[in-house]
Amino acid sequence: MIHFSLKGKAWAWFAFLFLISTLSNAQDITSELDALMNKQFKENEPGAVALVVKNGTPIYRKAFGMADLEHTIQMTPEHVFGIGSMTKQFTAVAILMLVEQGSLSLQDSITKFITDYPTKGHTITIHHLLTHTSGVKSYTELEKWRKIWRNDLTTQEMIDVFKDEPMDFAPGEAWHYSNSGYFLLGVIIEKVARMSYGEFVERKIFEPLDMKNTYYGSRSRIIPNRAMGYQFGREYRNAEYLSHTQPFSAGAIMSTVDDLWKWQVAIQNNILVKSETIAKAFTNHPLKNGKPTYYGYGWMLDEVNGSLTHEHSGGIFGYSSNAIHLPKEDVYIVVLSNCNCNSPVEVSIRMAAVAIGKPFPEPTAKIKLDEKYAKSLVGVYNFDDGSVREITLEDGQFYSQRTGSSKLKIFPQDKNAFTFESGLTSLHFILERGKVSSVVFKNRIVEANGKRAKSSLAGK
């Protein structure tokens, strides 16, 4: 009996130490996440709500800043935001639901449903629209759109805005983000389902998933707990008016962090479509030449310090959003902001890195380089994507400047690796026979290779 009692005490002591360690680790993570959010979202400015879920359990859920500046209403985790282009996830899954019903095929030409759409002699498929490889000009890039964005337009009137624009490229030959493509998908959903897009997502998605605080957006509808949207010029002001007939299936949905977690659970558990069907949404669909697009159907495919992500950001008048799922670690992060001036993309990526125990380095110089070697890195580099980047050294500070862009500080982390101020992007110098011959620019999963130009500025 005594021997058993000692074992019990030993086990209890071990369990106690494990609990203390776990609580301490949770507190450390919370502190790190708080620091990231507080740095970006200030107490008396438009704010944000963040949710972090790990292994199915929320480990962080907090609100920052103000939901309404005019009425001094503080942000709460229950506030509703425009999620902008995160809407594309819902549009993509709606299409996949119709595919499973046998109502359409991913290889169907869009003219099967929009018979008079001018395809300029090309075959544009639903797959092309889903992957942003259609070549259809995005209406949000058109100068004429800026003059009409307040107007309530029919879907046909909106199609008329962009349908006669020249194609950006032949379908499948390149990748270019197109809101027009996802607008057309919404029109196809309406024609096939014989109901409005808003009715489809509310009846077929929001209601079955108990997403009671998610809406097809409207400026006239009363939406409880709506966070007011802002933009910034010389000072904060109410966001420019945008008719929700225009973002439509490319960006009109409004939601909360809690409802978006319900959405993520439904996706992971194949509630709306089968596993083999939703897998298409997370496939890195290649171009005709075999190059990856890093885009599935409604989700971007990227990585956080070597860990695969499924993610998408959103930006619409008055609001910014980003959500990231790391399938291997089973971590989900969503941050919603009520100012389109304050994107949560970077902070949510940093939060993801903290949540999986792979935080990004602080954007400061970790080492001091030998003066002669430091000067040897200076130069002009031509990249395989057609861009040109100049590396300079001024008063001991390195800078990188892409032609046509601003000059950005870079910091050495070791002899050949540099990080940008954000800490999310890096440059890696390649040496051949002791001399710098090229540089690799890495923006998370996407890399570009640059060769030193003959007109190198090294040594100057």
Structure description:
The chain is of the alpha+beta class and about 450 residues long. Helices cover about 30% and strands about 25% of the residues. It has an eight-stranded antiparallel barrel with strand order 14-15-16-17-18-19-20-21. The protein has a six-stranded antiparallel β-sheet with strand order 2-1-13-12-11-10, sandwiched between helices. The radius of gyration is 25 Å and the shape is globular. The N and C termini lie far apart (about 80 Å). The relative contact order is 0.12. Mean pLDDT is about 90; it is low at about 1-5, about 15-25 and about 455-460.
Salient structural properties:
single chain; 460 residues; alpha+beta; 8-stranded antiparallel β-barrel; 6-stranded antiparallel sheet; disordered N terminus; disordered C terminus
**Strand-pairing-aware structural class:** alpha+beta
Main sheet: strands, sense, barrel: 8 strands, antiparallel, barrel
What gap, in angstroms, lies between the N and C termini? 82 Å
**What is the CA-based Rg, rounded?**
25 Å
Strand content: 25-35%
Mean pLDDT: 91
Percentage of residues in helical conformation: 25-40%
Number of DSSP E strands: 21
Described by its quaternary structure, the protein is: single chain
Shape: globular
- Give me the number of helical elements: 11
Contiguous low-pLDDT stretches (5 residues minimum) are 1-6, 14-23, 455-460
As laid out across the biggest beta sheet, the strand order is: 14-15-16-17-18-19-20-21
